[in-house]
């Protein structure tokens, strides 16, 4: 649960002190030829917007000065509607203002962080409130509601947004710029809005031969699904070069990395019997995750004897809950950690493999946005996070996250070449182009325990291909299992 | 003639023992390369069907290929029954490979038993799961058990240095310097070159380039993910494969003296040998060679550490010796197994200056045995409290209890020692025990405590 519940939670809760950028106001000058935002370097543009509780901590992305401030300069140049030539913003006269400077009726641009007030959002306060005698809300698929409202916050104030802005699509924590004017009733009428856009990207060095990276997520061990175990074994056999004929084995030899993107254990290993049941019943029973981790260790042993493996933890894995999730502890894998090819990494994870930059998560960020937005396709959400330039805008509001307050490691400083998220319901992949020649391959890695499908990314051509595994079952539905049925 | 042997084996497995013979199971059981195992199964099926068309054989196949689905080209890998094979092949736009997955007498309702068979054989061969596979990874060198445990428990320089080597390997892998990565990952060939623990990978890359060169042609031709071969059954040991195997054999001799992971080389050469009997022998040969290689490797590490720690331990031992008023009989070094090592560590320091070789040999194994404790734990996973009896320099027979991790065969030799006398001067006992207690937990099996092989470093000398 987040701070949701109608608090202007983000800023006031988590801001740790006065913004450390005294007096760096940024005002558009009328007639400034290039527009203020593109010309002024980032440092002086550190207008401190809703820091949204992020500070620099462990690993992932390098330290940043502050959340919103980092994004603000990039937001403005991308306003889609070029304002009329004599206005302040890039060739226009529209100024970027702070909320406290707004004059009614004056067209201007405001940059800030969104907050979406959602009546259906689970609220811890409402739950514990005794006077309402409310039962805990049943978990829903989506918490959106037609009555949701958007509020824009900067470091001092907040204002309701209305107008041509899709309330259901946006989620809390998004940094955006809105163009419009404030009305007399105190609400801001939006004419247009834009996001920070894709971060700059360093081009990847060209490869002279095909190299592949295999992305798998949601192995779901310990879940009792026999079918998925055979699929997992087939996957391991293909990668380690046991299955297939010579040609296949040669192709498999080109797989230079395997990334396991979370949810290695199944949801069912997270049983909380020990909490609910009496101690005498659970004293000698082993946690379900113990057996599952042993199985995982054997699988990792087979894989790491043959290919470098990066293991990311996921929602159901035995590591911390809040993002960024720490790597699984090597003591759980006594067999596999003997190989140096095994790397236990964090979630989210960033790596450079053969010069190609990978960045991805185990899917918690995307599924959280899915719950609070009307967007349906996980791949679409993934693309949206890239365009908003933030991996997980809903953290820490509705997704557990370490309370960073100085800088936000989830902001894209640099655009990756391959951006993936795990545990999606189905495979999806897309290549998008950015305005500055950025090319990103988006991959929605499906849940292996459900779909028996993994993704093979070709580093040279940045193409992604799904690879499915199946056995045969009693129902003779081989073709259906392969997806080849009528 | 030699062909008949493996056919008979398969025949026996399938019909007499009613087993489910998967290619993987056969590969581990006969100690052959997986592709060889697949070919054997295919031959068996062909022959059996020719001889006796009413043969009660059910075969499952592995089909892999690609087709266009939802706008992407999807690759499918599936285990199918024989009766469904053609149907599945017809649905695939491009059939990349088909081979026999398993043979069994009874018709299988689902693929569960196949998985179980594979899982069982894999469980019993976990440590060398990639031994017979077609892909070897140069970077996948199992960290020495000593160093991996000692990262956590010991702070000695040796471990730190080998740890940094390991981490540098890691970073190298992570960022993939093109040179070192290309070579192992280019076909990652059947010929695996494993860098020695202490040496860099570079010595191997040269050899790799040689073998890889041959494989490049094959690899580049097959570099697209769905090479689109037709019926591939006959392609198993195509020309390219034979080239690879020949190359492997040549380079195998060169790297014969390589370290632990020599077994893939041997296993790869096995397909070349025609005789399955030969195959069996060579697989057995692989085992002892592997053991010795492991031991040698450990021996090397042992010696390495000795230099650094011998002095300190010697010093310690000398100091302890001075404290003791009484002296014990000279230790019995002639113990053909690990007790010799524990003698070394035992704090039964005779007060008099013992002859240098004795403390030397004693102290030598101490650090590695300490290091190997947890490593051995990882290997054997058995810690038993055993009594070690020996005669120290002063002629006193000393028995002490130590914890050690042992394999089953080792314990046989240990039992002999247990029955030795426990005569011990009481005063010495009193003083020794606290030290023994301290030393006890630090002991582990000898670094060379491989099953039914050289168990202690002293044992090696004795046999000669």
From TrEMBL, chain A:
Q: Which domain of life is it from?
A: Eukaryota
Q: Where is this protein localized, as stated in its record?
A: Nucleus
Single GO biological process annotation from the record: DNA strand elongation involved in DNA replication
What are the protein's UniProt keywords?
DNA damage, DNA excision, DNA repair, DNA replication, Nucleus
Q: Which GO terms describe its molecular function?
A: DNA binding
Q: Name one Pfam family in it.
A: DNA_pol_E_B
One cellular component term (GO) for this entry is: delta DNA polymerase complex
Q: Which residues form the DNA polymerase delta subunit OB-fold domain?
A: 93-192
Under InterPro entries, the record lists: DNA_pol_a/d/e_bsu (IPR007185), DNA_pol_D_N (IPR040663), DNA_pol_delta/II_ssu (IPR024826), PolD2_C (IPR041863)
All residue ranges annotated as the DNA polymerase alpha/delta/epsilon subunit B domain in the record: 213-428
Q: Say if the entry is tagged with keyword Nucleus.
A: yes
What ranges does the record give for the region Disordered, renumbered to this chain? 1-22
Family according to the record: Belongs to the DNA polymerase delta/II small subunit family.
Know the name of this protein? DNA polymerase delta subunit 2
TrEMBL record, chain B:
| Species this protein is from | Pipistrellus kuhlii (Kuhl's pipistrelle)
Q: Where is the composition biased (Basic and acidic residues)?
A: 204-215, 284-294, 430-439
- What keywords sit in the KW lines? Cytoplasm, DNA damage, DNA excision, DNA repair, DNA replication, Nucleus
**Stored Pfam families:** CDC27
Superkingdom is: Eukaryota
Q: Where is this region: Disordered?
A: 146-230, 272-388, 404-464
Compositional bias of type Low complexity: which residue ranges? 336-346
Where is this gene product found?
Cytoplasm; Nucleus
One biological process term from GO is: DNA strand elongation involved in DNA replication
Q: Where is the composition biased (Polar residues)?
A: 155-171, 453-464
- Please list the residue ranges that the record marks as compositionally biased, kind Pro residues: 347-359
This protein is called what? DNA polymerase delta subunit 3
Which InterPro entries would you find in this protein's record? Answer: POLD3 (IPR019038), POLD3_sf (IPR041913)
GO CC aspect terms: cytoplasm; delta DNA polymerase complex
Q: Extract the GO molecular function terms from the UniProt entry.
A: DNA-directed DNA polymerase activity
């Amino acid at each position: 649960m987040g701070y949701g519940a109608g608090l202007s939670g983000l800023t006031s809760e988590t801001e740790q002190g006065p913004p450390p950028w005294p007096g760096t106001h940024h005002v558009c000058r009328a007639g400034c030829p290039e527009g203020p935002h593109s010309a002024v370097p980032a440092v002086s543009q550190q207008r401190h917007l809703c820091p949204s509780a992020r500070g620099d901590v462990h690993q992932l992305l390098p330290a940043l000065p502050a959340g919103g401030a980092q994004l603000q300069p990039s937001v403005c140049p991308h306003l889609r509607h070029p304002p009329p030539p004599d206005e302040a913003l890039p060739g226009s006269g529209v100024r970027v203002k702070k909320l406290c400077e707004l004059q009614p009726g004056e067209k201007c641009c405001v940059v800030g962080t969104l907050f979406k007030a959602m009546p259906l959002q689970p609220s811890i306060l409402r739950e514990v409130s005794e006077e309402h005698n409310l039962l805990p809300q049943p978990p829903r698929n989506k918490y959106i509601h037609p009555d949701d409202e958007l509020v824009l916050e900067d470091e001092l104030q907040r204002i309701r947004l209305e107008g041509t802005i899709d309330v259901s699509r946006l989620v809390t924590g998004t940094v955006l710029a809105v163009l419009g004017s404030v009305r007399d009733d105190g609400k801001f009428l939006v004419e247009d809005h834009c996001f920070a856009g894709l971060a700059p990207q360093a081009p990847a060095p060209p490869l002279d031969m095909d190299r592949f990276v295999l992305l798998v997520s949601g192995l779901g061990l310990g879940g009792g699904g026999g079918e998925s175990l055979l699929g997992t074994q087939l996957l391991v056999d293909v990668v380690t070069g046991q299955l297939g004929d010579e040609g296949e084995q040669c192709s498999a030899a080109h797989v230079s990395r395997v990334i396991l993107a979370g949810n290695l254990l199944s949801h069912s290993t997270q049983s909380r019997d020990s909490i609910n049941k009496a101690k005498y019943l659970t004293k000698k029973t082993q946690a379900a995750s113990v057996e599952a981790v042993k199985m995982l260790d054997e699988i990792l042993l087979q894989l790491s004897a043959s290919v470098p493996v990066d293991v990311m933890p996921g929602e159901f894995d035995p590591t911390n809950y809040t993002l960024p999730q720490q790597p699984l502890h090597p003591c759980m894998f006594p067999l596999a950690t003997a190989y140096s090819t095994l790397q236990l990494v964090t979630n989210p994870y960033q790596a450079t493999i053969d010069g190609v930059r990978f960045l991805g998560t185990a899917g918690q960020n995307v599924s959280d946005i899915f719950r609070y937005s009307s967007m349906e396709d996980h791949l679409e959400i993934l693309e949206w996070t890239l365009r908003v330039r933030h991996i997980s805008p809903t953290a820490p509001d509705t997704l557990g996250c370490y309370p960073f307050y100085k800088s936000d490691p989830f902001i894209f400083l640099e655009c990756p070449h391959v951006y993936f998220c795990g545990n999606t319901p189905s495979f999806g992949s897309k290549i998008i182009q950015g305005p500055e020649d950025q090319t990103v391959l988006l991959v929605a890695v499906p849940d292996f325990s459900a779909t028996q499908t993994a993704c093979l990314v070709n580093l040279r051509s940045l193409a992604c291909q799904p690879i499915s595994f199946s056995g045969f079952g009693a129902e003779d539905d081989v073709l259906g299992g392969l997806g080849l049925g009528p | 003639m030699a062909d008949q042997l493996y056919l008979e084996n398969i025949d026996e497995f399938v019909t007499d023992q009613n087993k489910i013979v998967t290619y993987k199971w056969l590969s581990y059981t006969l100690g052959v390369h997986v592709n060889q195992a697949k070919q054997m199964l295919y031959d068996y099926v062909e022959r059996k069907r020719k001889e006796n068309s009413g043969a009660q054989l059910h075969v499952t196949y592995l089909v892999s290929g690609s087709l266009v689905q939802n706008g992407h080209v999807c690759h499918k890998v599936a285990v199918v029954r024989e009766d469904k094979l053609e149907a599945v092949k017809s649905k695939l736009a491009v059939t990349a490979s088909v081979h026999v997955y398993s043979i069994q007498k009874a018709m299988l309702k689902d693929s569960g038993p196949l998985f179980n068979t594979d899982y069982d054989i894999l469980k019993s061969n976990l440590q060398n799961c990639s031994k017979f596979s077609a892909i070897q990874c140069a970077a996948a060198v199992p960290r020495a058990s000593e160093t991996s445990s000692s990262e956590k428990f010991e702070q000695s320089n040796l471990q730190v240095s080998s740890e940094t080597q390991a981490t540098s390997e890691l970073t190298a892998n992570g960022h993939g310097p093109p040179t070192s990565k290309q070579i192992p990952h280019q076909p990652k060939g059947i010929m695996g070159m494993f860098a020695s623990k202490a040496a860099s990978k570079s010595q191997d890359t040269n050899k790799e380039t040689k073998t890889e060169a041959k494989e490049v042609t094959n690899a580049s031709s097959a570099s697209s993910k769905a090479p689109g071969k037709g019926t591939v059954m006959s392609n198993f040991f195509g020309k390219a494969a034979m080239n690879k195997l020949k190359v492997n054999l040549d380079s195998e001799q060169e790297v014969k003296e390589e370290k632990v992971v020599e077994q893939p080389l041997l296993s790869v050469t096995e397909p070349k040998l025609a005789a399955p009997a030969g195959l069996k022998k060579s697989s057995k040969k692989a085992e002892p060679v592997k053991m010795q290689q492991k031991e040698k490797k450990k021996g090397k590490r042992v010696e390495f550490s000795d230099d650094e720690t011998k002095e300190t331990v010697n010093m310690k031992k000398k100091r302890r010796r001075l404290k003791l008023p009484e002296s014990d009989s000279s230790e019995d070094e002639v113990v053909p197994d690990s007790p010799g090592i524990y003698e070394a560590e035992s704090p039964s320091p005779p007060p008099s200056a013992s002859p240098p070789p004795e403390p030397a040999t004693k102290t030598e194994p101490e650090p590695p045995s300490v290091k190997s404790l947890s490593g051995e734990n990882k290997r054997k996973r058995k810690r038993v409290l055993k009594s070690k009896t020996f005669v120290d320099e002063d002629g006193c027979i000393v028995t002490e209890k130590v914890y050690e991790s042992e394999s089953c065969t080792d314990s046989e030799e240990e039992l002999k020692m247990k029955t030795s006398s426990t005569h011990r001067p009481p005063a010495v006992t009193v003083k020794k025990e606290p030290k023994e207690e301290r030393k006890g937990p630090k002991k582990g099996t000898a670094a060379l405590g491989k099953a039914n092989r050289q168990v202690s470093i002293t044992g090696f000398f004795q046999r000669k």
